[in-house]
Specification:
Blueprint: E1 3-7, H1 13-22, E2 27-31, H2 35-45, E3 48-49, H3 53-57, E4 62-65, H4 70-77, H5 83-86, E5 92-95, H6 101-111, E6 117-120, E7 123-124, H7 126-132, E8 135-141, H8 143-153, E9 157-164, H9 168-196, H10 201-208, H11 216-227, H12 237-254, H13 259-273, H14 285-289
Parallel strand pairs: 1-2, 1-4, 2-3, 4-5, 5-6, 8-9
Antiparallel strand pairs: 6-8, 7-8
Helix pairs in contact: 9-11, 9-12, 9-13, 12-13
């Protein structure tokens, strides 16, 4: 059992922190910008809440966070009330937020002089993966620090792998999002084509999902795409646009060409313009079926 702090109780962080408290048997104290959410979590899971990141981190062996973006991370880590102000030498900071690789390297550099270990550990698997404790966690950092953190992370992981040094986890998440964007656009176009050709899409999927076209997105999202219904589940378009923006910014730095990703990002911008910012990312079909 470890004493842990968890910062950020959104759709991902809320169940992840819950797994640490109940399934992992750890002592967890949480912080959330909206205090009522922290109080709700503490009542539901039996842990404790703190009014600031610093107070949540004080005395914790490991501080984990899952917030919105680079600015959100800095707001809970730095400053007089930030988590770093409450952490001591020998502790570990784990960032589950999908943010930039440059921020991961910055955090690693700022933690090291204080004797604090750092792991960038973005996740894949969506809300369902968080709720079911079946996330894929891609990590960057020092091997010795990762080895200490891994038993805690495995409480809600299906896979937890150290990819490389600080920033490698975030770069891997970018690879993940680039691949997903392409898969979803392909799935939307394929199903739209099949429907306009008069095919029974359920039968089509039953065949092609057993062959080379198979993917997690196909198996889990084909019904939503076919029915053009995207409310109340999955990974939101707003979040995907944030992630693809990170990918495109990084590509400018490393020289990678992402023509399809840039185009699909603009398709998502059109979905947002239709009021679909909170729809699942499979809503690319909306642009094809309702043109």
């Amino acid at each position: 059992m470890a004493k842990l702090a968890f910062l950020g109780l959104g759709v991902m962080g809320y169940p992840m922190a819950g797994h640490l408290q109940k399934k992992g048997g750890h002592e967890v104290i949480v912080y959330n910008r909206t205090a009522s959410k922290s109080a709700q979590w503490a009542k539901e899971h039996g842990g404790r809440s703190a009014p600031t990141p610093r107070e949540a981190a004080a005395g914790a062996e490991m501080v984990l966070m899952c917030v919105g973006n680079d600015d959100d991370v800095r707001s809970v880590i730095y400053g007089d009330n930030g988590a770093l102000a409450g952490m001591k030498s020998g502790t570990i900071l784990v960032d589950h937020t999908t943010d930039s690789a440059s921020l991961a390297r910055e955090l690693h550099a700022n933690c090291k002089p204080a004797g604090i270990g750092f792991v960038d550990a973005p996740v894949s698997g969506g809300q369902a993966g968080a709720v079911n404790g079946q996330l894929g966690i891609m990590c960057g950092g020092d091997a010795a620090v990762f080895a200490r953190a891994k038993p805690v992370l495995e409480v809600y992981a299906k896979s937890c792998v150290l990819i490389g040094e600080a920033g490698a986890g975030q770069l891997t998440k970018m690879v993940n999002q680039i691949a997903i964007a392409g898969l979803l656009q392909g799935l939307a176009e394929a199903i739209n084509f099949g429907k306009r050709a008069g095919l029974d899409i359920e039968k089509v999927i039953s065949v092609i999902s057993k062959g080379a076209a198979q993917s997690w997105q196909m198996e889990n999202r084909w019904k939503a795409v076919n029915e053009v219904k995207f409310d109340g589940f999955g990974f939101a378009v707003d979040w995907m646009r944030k992630d693809l923006g990170i990918c495109l910014d990084e590509a400018k730095r490393n020289g990678a060409r992402l023509p399809a990703t840039a185009l699909i990002d603009q398709f998502y911008a059109q979905v947002q313009a239709r009021g679909g910012g909170r729809w699942d990312t499979s809503s690319l079909m909306h642009l094809l079926a309702k043109d």
